[in-house]
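step=encode ok
step=design start
structure_in=
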């Protein structure tokens, strides 16, 4: 099984683990090292193969790496990029590949029926596996050790890679939630803290850049709700069984990463300029990021 990156995509790829495990398959999972800890305690995975991206830069690197892999009955390619194509080609095994609709999405041809979870599961039909599954990350008591987790709290995932995906008023959302008697916890990376210029109330608990990946998942798993940009935190909530409200800016829920109805909901204004980019970007052609600034904090908390 291959899924290299990014964090949210790697987490969502866990949707195939349970049906494969239940069917009796032994699973080796190939991913990039920064994301491998997500699955470090997953009993469904026999071998976790964690590589550094720099080990996969050239064709020679990929061929050398592939030749060191064992022979497989099947190779499940859930990345479908050049790197995973080459590894699949140079490794012995029947290839089952996820169809990512990359060209359609880049051309902004939107399909309301496309969902990444269903797309990941589609190749499994060739193995006689069908069903409606959800992503799941396995946690244990050690992941909660030493964490000072409050009661009755909402997690906010205020970070994102690009500004067109970063809702700017989470500080106001926090104020409303606190007035309603809820605790507020911020989850994300150190980089998220540096990009977020908002000033939060003093009693907001800011864990950004202070927790490991597994600790962040542990905190999220205890939340009443997660409110997040279209980013990894949203998918972390889904994989821990916590309802999520995803805020969409420059991207679009029809790209396939929106939570399904049983996983939560999303807010999307549907402006003529949305989506402006498949992955988001740091500039807005209008200069005001109206896809996000037109969403009021009350609309999120109501």
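sequence_out=
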């Amino acid at each position: 099984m291959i899924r290299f990156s990014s964090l949210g995509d790697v987490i969502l790829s866990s949707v195939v683990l349970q049906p494969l495990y239940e069917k009796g398959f032994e699973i080796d999972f190939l991913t990039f090292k920064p994301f491998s800890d997500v699955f470090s305690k997953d009993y469904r995975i026999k071998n976790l193969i964690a590589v550094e991206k720099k080990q996969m830069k050239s064709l020679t690197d990929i061929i050398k790496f592939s030749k060191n892999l064992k022979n497989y009955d099947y190779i499940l390619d859930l990345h479908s990029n050049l790197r995973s194509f080459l590894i699949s080609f140079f490794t012995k095994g029947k290839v089952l590949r996820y169809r990512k609709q990359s060209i359609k999405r880049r051309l902004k041809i939107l399909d309301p029926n496309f969902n990444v979870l269903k797309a990941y599961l589609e190749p499994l039909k060739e193995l006689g596996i069908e069903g409606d599954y959800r992503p799941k990350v396995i946690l244990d008591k050690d992941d909660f050790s030493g964490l000072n987790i409050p009661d009755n709290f909402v997690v906010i995932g205020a970070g994102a890679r690009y500004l067109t995906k970063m809702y700017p008023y989470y500080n106001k959302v926090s104020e409303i939630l606190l007035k309603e008697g809820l605790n507020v916890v911020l989850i994300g990376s150190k980089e998220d803290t540096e990009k977020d210029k908002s000033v939060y109330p003093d009693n907001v608990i800011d864990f950004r850049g202070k927790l490991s990946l597994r600790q962040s998942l542990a905190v999220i798993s205890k939340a009443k709700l997660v409110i997040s940009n279209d980013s990894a935190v949203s998918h972390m909530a889904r994989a821990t069984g916590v309802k999520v409200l995803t805020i969409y800016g420059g991207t679009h829920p029809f790209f396939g990463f929106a939570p399904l109805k049983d996983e939560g909901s999303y807010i999307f204004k549907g402006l003529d300029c949305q989506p402006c980019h498949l992955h988001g970007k740091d500039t807005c052609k209008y200069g005001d990021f109206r896809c996000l600034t037109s969403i009021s904090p009350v609309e999120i908390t109501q």
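step=design ok
step=annotate ok -> The chain has a mean pLDDT of 97.
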